[in-house]
Structures are given as C-alpha cells and as structure tokens.
Amino acid sequence: MSSPSILDGKSIVFAGGGTGGHLLPGMAVAAELASRGDCRISFVGTNRPVEQQIIARSGFEHIDLPTYPLKAMFRNPFRFFVNNFRAYWKGRTWLRENDPALVVGLGGMASVPVIMEASLMKLPIVLLEQNIVCGKANHFLLGRADVICSSFPDTIWSSSQIEAGQKPRVVVTGNPVRTQIRQLAESANQILSDPAEDEFVILVLGGSQGALAVNSAVISLLERSLDQLPETIQVVHQTGENDFSRLEKAYERIWNSVPRLKVTVKPFFEDLSEWYARAHLVISRSGATTLAELACAGCPTILIPYPGSVNEHQLLNARYFAEHGAAVIVEQCSEPEQTARQLQEAVFKLVFDAEQRGQMATRMRQLALPDAAKRVADEIMDLMPA
Q1: Would the CATH topology of 11-175+371-383 be identical to that of 183-366?
Q2: Which residues, listed in sequence order, are joined to residue 235 by a DSSP beta bridge?
Q3: Is the per-residue pLDDT at 335 higher than 80?
Q4: Considering only CA atoms, which of 128, 101, 88, 86 is closest in space to residue 40?
Q5: pLDDT over 90 for what percent of the chain?
Q6: Per-residue burial over 19-29, b = 16 or more CB atoms within 10 Å of its CB, e = otherwise
Q7: Do 9 and 108 form a contact (C-beta atoms < 8 A)?
Q8: According to the model, what pLDDT value does residue 1 have?
Q9: Where are the domains of the chain?
Q10: How far is CA 111 from its chain centroid?
Q11: Mind listing the pLDDT tens digit for each residue in 197-236?
Q12: pTM over the 0.85 mark
C-alpha cells in the first residue's frame, strides 16, 4: 500500500496548448504527478485536432476553449474578441465549478483566460516557459504566477518584476520530457556508425504540425543528390497532417527512380524515442520541446528555425544549441532552392564526418536536463495547499 501524498484527492489543471511544443512538457509533468499521488488531472486548451489527438492518447481529461490566436487579431478583430471572450467565460465557469488546488500554465492563448481566473481565485500558479525568449502569453501572465519553470538558464524575460527578483520566482528546471525520452538520456551513448558500412538514418522533423519549407527542402535535396549519399540511407520523415499527401507522392516518385532508398513517412509519430535512438542525423525545426528531446537522445542535428516564430524564439533557441557545438543552423531563405542548397551543403558535411557527429552528440547530451519533469513536479508539490 502506497503512503499518503499531499496530492491525494486534489485537482490540478494544466492550461494552454495548441501545439505539441506546449502540450508535451505539460503531459510529462502530469504523468510525474500522477505517479506521486491519487490526483485528478485536467487539460484546458484548444480544439485543434493535434491537441485532441495527443491528449486522447494520454487518457487525461480535456476541456477545449474557443480561443483565437493573437497573430490573427488584426486580420479579424471581431472574431478575436468574441472567441476569446467566450473562451474566458467557459474557462472561468469550468474553473469555479471544479475548484482546483493549483493551475499550471503551458503557454499559448488558451492559457490566458484560465490563468487570469485562477489569479482572481487566488490559486497557486506555475508557468512553464519552454523557449529562450518568454512567449507573449506567459509575458502577459508573469505577475500572476508564483513560480516560473524555465527551460534555459539564459531566458530573456523583458520584465522589471523578474529583474527585480520580485514575484514570481524563476527556477531553471529544463523542459520536461516524457519517460521514454528521459530513458534515452540514461542509456549508453549512441553508436554512430560509418555510413559506408551500416544503414544511415536521417530523421526529419517539422514539428507536430509539420513544416512546408523543411519538407520541400528535404525532397529537393534527395531529388538532386541521392546518388551521392550513402547506399544504405534510410529517411524517416514526420510531415505533419497538412503536407502528408504531397510528401507521400514525392517519396513515391523518388523511390521509383531509386528503389534502394528506404523511407518511413508519417504525418505524426506517436513515439519518436525509437527513431531518436537510431538516428545518425536529424533535420528539424528548433522548437524548445523538440530540442529538449534531441538533447536527451544525443542526436547531431541540423536546425532550420521557423522565421515566423514569435520574437524569433526558434532562431534564438537554435543559436543556443549551435553556440554550444550541438547543432548546425541552416537559414530558411525566401527562395526555396537556396534553402535546399544550404541544407545539402550541411548534410554532406555531416554524413561523411562521423567524428564531428560524435562531438555534436556529446555536446547535445551535455545540454540535456532529463529530470526536468521531476523538478517541476517538486515545485508544484511545494506550492500545493495542505
């Protein structure tokens, strides 16, 4: 029989979402809390399909709010204000009916109405900040939080409250990752084989929602130079739902020309841990959650930051890893062919240089904080009312 826990019988709400980058850290923390006590865990977020799919697989309760993204405010201000007022009212009503013990903000527009109401209810509030520059939602909510759990030691806050050391308290915990990913960090170092002898795996990630420019650059690279790559190459590509059909046809066309190419292409991989462990080289966007997972796995990586990310956070995330020798940056150019050429140059440098890939893998692992979920859970338990 397990010993009593301060979590027993308590309700904890995770607010925010919309993307895997916001949701997956929250789910890692939720799983850690569930292992420590008999508590009720709910996610209050958006109605985006990717969010519904991710949470449905976890078994946690999900309440969706009709939020409208901040970037769309000027395009359709009426819809922005109407939707977000409805979201606030629905979140407020649900929160007051369920009376949670504590609320965790994950970032994104869906976190705002819930955290605002939690503040009015004087509930303990924890914010997770995944990126190296504080997101707009979290920046707006900073003064309402008791603790902020930061992924990077050099996070840019732009807040006099943070700089003055007032509430909230900032703790560098790292970005929480799932158990399967944490186990990669605990396992032996990845063996990086010689591409001339063994199957060479290139893993392509555009994020849970995909990335058209990354997908196109990889296809262009393969069409132009597949004959110069190792005979035993395998491409594993997460395309995102919207681009899957186009990419599937493109790979079919390439495979008809070069039948030796092994391809695994899916819109979304439920569990990437197996491919992280096998990947010799990763091509990826530079969202903070993906980077945290790649660090735990020790994957040499080429990063293509999304140029439209808020406050250029993907570029800043990528620079942090590049400056530590863990990754190489390829800029997404306005001309797709230019992006493809730069990617081709970076790929060829690394595919045939096992020593550099080994150094990058080591430096990736040095940036990993695999116990981040446990650290965040500790902070939550310290705030939990008796």
Answers
A1: yes
A2: 202, 263
A3: yes
A4: 101
A5: 60
A6: bbbbbbbbbbb
A7: no
A8: 43
A9: 11-175+371-383, 183-366
A10: 16
A11: 578 999 999 765 568 899 999 999 999 888 888 888 899 9
A12: yes
CB-based contact 232:195 (threshold 8 Å): yes
**174 φ, ψ (degrees, to nearest 5):** 90, 170
CATH topology of domain 11-175+371-383: Rossmann fold (3.40.50)
8 φ, ψ to 5°?
A: -55, 125
Q: Does the domain made of 183-366 have the CATH classification 3.40.1280.10?
A: no
Contact 50, 198 (CB under 8 A): no
Core vs surface per residue 295-319: b (16+ CB within 10 A) or e: bbbbbbbbbbbbeebebbbbbbbbb
Report the distance separating Cα 352 and Cα 348, nearest Å.
7
Token couple for 299:
């994957």
| Rounded Cα distance, 123 and 214, in Å | 42
Mean of pLDDT values over 188-201 = 61
Query: Is pLDDT of 325 > 50?
Result: yes
What pLDDT, in 10s, does the model give residues 91-106?
A: 889 999 999 999 999 9
The span from the CA of 269 to the CA of 240, in Å, is 9
Q: Is 122 exposed, middle or buried (0-12, 13-18, 19+ CB in 10 A)?
A: exposed
Q: Is residue 384 very low, low, confident or very high in pLDDT (cuts 50, 70, 90)?
A: very high
pLDDT in tens, 303-322: 999 998 888 999 999 999 99
CA dist 152 → 25, 155, 279, 290 (Å): 14, 5, 25, 14
